[in-house]
Specification:
- This protein has helices at residues 8-14, 55-63, 104-109, 119-128, 144-157, 174-189, 201-204, 229-234; strands at 17-26, 29-39, 44-48, 70-75, 90-93, 162-166, 193-197, 209-214, 217-222.
- It is of the alpha/beta class and 252 residues long.
- A hairpin with a 2-residue loop joins strand 8 and strand 9 (217-222).
- It has a domain at 8-92 and 160-234: P-loop containing nucleotide triphosphate hydrolases (Rossmann fold, 3-Layer(aba) Sandwich).
- The strands form two sheets. Strands 5-6-7-3-8-9 form a six-stranded mixed sheet, sandwiched between helices. It has a three-stranded antiparallel sheet with strand order 2-1-4, with helices on one face.
- Adenosine-5'-triphosphate binds at residues 26, 29, 31, 49, 51-57, 197.
Length: 252
């Protein structure tokens, strides 16, 4: 597997991802409102904004774990399938990755469910996760950082065209975060389009575009260079503001 966009068919079927007037209501609370934006194939998009601004909800919606209450979500101009939990061609990794009982290898096998066994691919995923000598170890014994690397390797095995990462380093120490971000960059270099929610400047710095939400609404969608670096360092995480010259696009 070269990993370049998993399958070009999947890429062609996913991009661009278009949100047209998308809203998401939970109970009486509109957590996403009037979103109009387009995500093109390739690169890393960082989704930023204060706590509760809707970052996770947006990723869940793109992945198919939730459906828009109103508006349209289109993949390559088409409505996604109604059946199934998650949309095809995608993988999502959460801040806290649950491990199955069993070994590290057992957890990787999960990604191959329904596709038969592929020892070579599992071996490659173990190496990718830096867990080559730990395949037979209980997955429950892994550190948080090792679990996240395993989760990314598992996602890679699924050959996704789109990888959604929900604050992948939020509970990791700096050293573990560096390893995760290295993995993310490698996956992006393989042609996998990455969308990650984050509060961290070092993750935003990896992105080619930054999508900022506030109270469920799109505030900005621009290149990170357009963000004011002074403010990036000086203000509390999650409160990223655009500099005056940031032109806000609905598509970057
Ligand atoms: N299961 C749920 N039921 C009802 N409301 C929810 C649920 N999960 C989240 N919310 C609400 O949806 C809104 C958006 O939450 P979301 O988790 O998407 O924000 P976020 O930007 O990812 O926040 P954080 O930075 O804290 O992770 C918040 O007001 C939150 O309280």
């Amino acid at each position: 597997m070269n990993g370049s966009c998993g399958a070009d068919v999947a890429c062609a079927a996913l991009f661009p991802i278009s949100l047209q007037g998308v809203g998401l209501r939970r109970g009486t609370n509109w957590v996403l409102r009037g979103l109009d934006l387009q995500i093109a194939r390739g690169g890393i998009t960082a989704v930023v904004g204060p706590n509760g601004s809707g970052k996770t909800s947006l990723l869940r919606l793109i992945h198919g774990l939730e459906r828009p209450t109103c508006g349209r979500l289109l993949f390559a101009g088409q409505e996604p399938p109604l059946e199934g939990m998650a949309y095809p061609g995608q993988a999502m990794v959460f801040a806290h990755t649950p491990m199955l009982r069993g070994t590290v290898t057992d957890n990787l096998r999960l990604a191959l469910t329904g596709r038969g066994s592929d020892p070579g691919l599992i071996e490659a995923a173990l190496i990718r996760a830096g867990l080559h000598s730990r395949g037979r170890q209980s997955a429950a014994s892994l550190s948080s950082g090792q679990r996240q690397r395993l989760a990314l390797a598992r996602a890679w095995m699924m050959q996704p065209a789109l990888l959604l990462l929900d604050e992948p380093c939020s509970h990791l120490d700096p050293q573990a975060s560096v390893a995760i971000l290295q993995d993310v960059q490698e996956l992006a270099a393989l042609g996998i389009t990455v969308v990650l929610s984050t509060h961290r400047p070092e993750e935003i710095a990896l992105a080619q575009r930054v999508l900022r939400l506030d109270h469920g609404q799109l505030q900005t969608f621009c290149a990170p260079q357009s963000l004011n670096p002074q403010r990036l360092g000086a203000i509390p995480p999650g409160d990223y503001a655009c500099s005056r010259d940031c032109i806000c696009h609905s598509s970057v």
